[in-house]
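Final paragraph of the annual report: two paired records, presented back to back.
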Amino acid sequence: MKKLSLICFAICIVLLLFMVRIAFSETIDVGDLAEEYGTWIGNNYSLMSRGNPANATGTIDHIEMYVSSIGSGDKVTVYALTEVASGEFDSGGSSGEFTVVVGTNIFNAPGDFVAFAITAGDFIGCYTTCALKRDTSGGSDVLLDYGQEFPMDNFTFGSTYTEDKLALYGTGTTGEPPPTAKPVQSQILILE
């Protein structure tokens, strides 16, 4: 009975420490709000929003986007992008590929994707086979390039839509990033 009490006590301490860590976590947000803006952009483009860079370092575990139409496909992959030199970007963490529908799309980790690391100052971007909503004013630029350019290594986008917003937004928490996971064909995740 004494062993059982000690085990229960240890479990309670671990749960309390976990709850304290969550209570003191800062919320990370990156990108522009995923709203139904007046126009669209996409269909086989790599896109990045300069609006609202990540406010802290941690993990992205929630992604929202507003899809305008399903053009040549219904797939979107979201990435964290670091500006390594003026106008040159490296891709970091990735959501993996999402299947989307027209309208608001919300994805959460765990479940829909494996949460990925982001560093304060990073941007959010994506490769999309469909069209995402964008606003042509009030933003901080949308960078774009035709074709799938991920992963990126010292990549320069081909075009810029000045002062635009992209309907792509991510949130998460500060703290230790999760272990990386690699899916294998049997759909079992192997933690490294």
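The closing record of the year follows.
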Amino acid sequence: MDFFGQAFFLRKVAANKAQGVVNSLETDESAVISLPFRLTVSSILFAVILLLSFVYLYDFLEEAKEKAAMDEISRLTAAAEQLSMRGEGSEVFLELKLSESVSADFGALPGRQDKWPEDANDYCVHTGEKSTFYYSDASFSNPEINGPVFLGSGRHKLLLSTKLEPKSGRLFVLISENKTLDKI
């Protein structure tokens, strides 16, 4: 075989190999057979990622709601502690807005309302199904000085005042809804 015949032979072999590759691609359908499996796995992974994103977003929104509630309630507790330091006869008006599904108990812990004077420095914040307990330097009471105060969600116009309880001599911050502010 001379030089020109060898080149022709090599071109023919290369053409046959290329034809063999094309034929093997046409007849190899393993990629088509596994396509539904790949789509199913991809769909499941996408659904899991989407679900995790929604859970994270829900938790983020709950944290934001709890932080907003705590910002409002901390205004009340800070004012109550300042009033408590000033002594008897101090008063302050305060407007408080608790978002939906948020409530607060001042002067009692859940299930211990009958332990009122002992728990008067405690307060509890309920956000949805979560309850968080806190301690304050001020002692909380209702206007009659005979029990705790409960504030539900919504807008509250409050009068905070201090008064000594005659039996024990303990200074209480009285929390009362001020109905006269509604008329203004």
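The two ends are 113 Å apart (CA to CA). This concludes the annual technical report; the extension proposal builds directly on these records.
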